């Protein structure tokens, strides 16, 4: 009889996982229940509807508790025969088998509730996976460490106390300083998201409180001169929300390179630890917000296969880094994306200004003129044309490209200036587009696609000379000859 020497580990989730499942169900039900209470009961003078609503609320609460308990009881996992086996499901039992050789990363997250009970959440990502193949919602730190050590057989033990066994160059660490975190929070690009969130919430106020008439009350309560101050207060609140969210997200940010993997740790309330294999990184983006450019700072992102695909995320290689330190950072942490010192930057030709400064302002001017025939105040849109032209001129001056050997660098701007570093081996496709105005000027638009997330990432550079664009396309098509 043949015996196997393969390690075997069996286990189940911590009982607190039942509570987490129940809370997740309640979270999905709480908004509909609040709407029902505020709308139906507020318009009814009898107590009958209240009993009916309370009864159904209790049924939903008890049902979520029972479902959470059954989900926890049915969840089992086992590591044996060189694979991870996960069994779960309340009514329909689902079994998942994941070969250990296909596991790319094991990510650990500590939410607020997890930290109160000394637990962690573990997510297992596989090669080419668009979402975690296995999720362990609540494990003790000890169980998570044992599971992780078995799923990552090449991981060096942490408790040996012999740092000399591993070369120093394979254990490099960068930590975000408090000053950089403060600057990143105050100048965060999440301001627009906060404004959109507040606008969505304010748009629902009259629906949630139909008898209160929120905006009619504010209109009557505020003097006309106070309305701009009220709007300014809303913008200030959005900026504060974005800054606080940035601090909570990037506090304690640390990136460590261990052999061929990057370990990213971040978060204040929710601590998240993500493993990104170097071979899954397809391109690097260096992003300079307008305010950051004044002080010489940039943020580094990695376009990766698999990581964050279910959330539309990109891996933050570093939230804020001085421009003069970027070269050394890339050389140490992601050496395959190191830009040669001899790489020469090519700016767009002057004739490309016509493609940037003419179309959008012209369409804006024609639209404002046409709308002004109906509403004279619409002529004010003509005042935006000079501002748009200046912005487009700035975009053109910021754009350019560089190429040497198997490395391509594209620079372009929307509002923030972006530098994309793309090795030839990571390029998925190259396309060249030529519009009517571009054809007359001998220009084109180059689009480079790399694999990232679920839909890929695309980098576009408009105003490139047509001859250069076609040479870059041939550079891609002849990749197998290099």
**Spatial ordering of strands, largest sheet:** 7-6-5-11-10-9-8
Distance between the termini: 52 Å
Q: Based on helices, strands and strand pairing, what is the structural class?
A: alpha+beta
pLDDT < 50 runs, ≥5 residues: 1-6, 154-169
CATH architecture group name of the domain at 9-154: Roll
Q: Helical region count?
A: 16
> The CATH topology of the domain at 9-154, please?
PH-domain like
The overall strand count is 21
The proportion of residues forming helix, as a percent range, comes to 40-55%
- What is the CATH level 1 assignment of the domain at 9-154? Mainly Beta
What proportion of the residues form beta strands (DSSP E)?
A: 25-35%
Large-scale geometry:
globular
Main sheet, how many strands, which sense, barrel?
7 strands, antiparallel
Spell out the CATH superfamily of the domain at 9-154: Pleckstrin-homology domain (PH domain)/Phosphotyrosine-binding domain (PTB)
Estimated radius of gyration: 28 Å
Q: Give the rounded overall mean pLDDT.
A: 82
């Amino acid at each position: 009889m043949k015996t196997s020497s393969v390690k075997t580990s069996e286990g189940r989730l911590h009982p607190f996982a039942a509570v987490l499942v129940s809370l997740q169900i309640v979270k999905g039900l709480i908004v509909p229940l609040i709407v029902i209470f505020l709308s139906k009961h507020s318009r009814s003078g009898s107590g009958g509807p209240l009993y009916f609503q309370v009864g159904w609320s209790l049924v939903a609460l008890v049902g979520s508790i029972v479902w959470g308990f059954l989900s926890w009881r049915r969840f089992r996992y086992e590591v044996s025969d060189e694979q991870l086996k996960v069994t779960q499901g309340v009514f329909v039992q689902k079994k998942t088998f994941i070969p250990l050789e296909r596991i790319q990363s094991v990510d650990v997250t500590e939410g607020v509730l997890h930290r109160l009970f000394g637990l962690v959440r573990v997510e297992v990502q596989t090669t080419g996976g668009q979402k975690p193949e296995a999720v362990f919602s609540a494990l003790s730190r000890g169980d998570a460490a044992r599971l992780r050590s078995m799923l990552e057989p090449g991981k060096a033990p942490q408790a040996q106390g012999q740092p000399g066994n591993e070369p120093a160059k394979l254990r490099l660490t960068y930590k975000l300083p408090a000053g950089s975190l403060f600057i990143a929070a105050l100048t965060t690009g999440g301001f627009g998201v906060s404004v959109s969130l507040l606008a969505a919430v304010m748009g629902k106020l009259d629906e949630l409180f139909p008898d209160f008439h929120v905006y009619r009350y504010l209109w009557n309560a505020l003097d006309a001169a106070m309305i701009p101050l009220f709007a300014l207060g809303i913008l200030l609140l959005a900026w504060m929300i974005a800054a606080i969210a940035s601090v909570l997200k990037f506090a304690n940010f640390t990136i460590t390179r261990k052999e061929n993997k990057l370990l990213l740790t971040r978060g204040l309330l929710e601590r998240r630890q993500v493993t990104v294999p170097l071979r899954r990184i397809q391109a690097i983006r260096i992003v300079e917000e307008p305010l950051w450019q004044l002080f010489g700072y940039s943020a580094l992102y990695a376009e990766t296969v698999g990581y964050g695909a279910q959330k539309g995320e990109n891996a933050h290689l570093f939230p804020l880094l001085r421009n003069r330190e970027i070269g050394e950072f890339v050389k140490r942490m992601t050496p395959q994306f190191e830009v040669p010192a001899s790489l020469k930057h090519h700016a767009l030709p002057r004739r490309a200004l016509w493609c940037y400064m003419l179309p959008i302002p012209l369409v804006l001017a024609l639209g404002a003129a046409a709308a002004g025939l109906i509403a004279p105040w619409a002529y004010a849109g003509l005042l935006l044309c000079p501002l748009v032209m200046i912005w487009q001129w700035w975009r053109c001056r910021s754009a350019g490209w560089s190429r040497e050997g198997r490395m391509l660098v594209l620079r372009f701007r929307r509002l923030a200036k972006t530098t994309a570093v793309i090795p030839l081996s990571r390029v998925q496709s190259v396309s060249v587009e030529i519009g009517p105005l571009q054809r007359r000027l001998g220009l084109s638009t180059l689009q480079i696609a790399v694999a990232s997330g679920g839909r890929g990432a695309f980098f576009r550079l408009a105003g490139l000379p047509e001859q250069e664009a076609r040479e870059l396309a041939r550079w891609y098509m002849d990749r197998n000859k290099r």
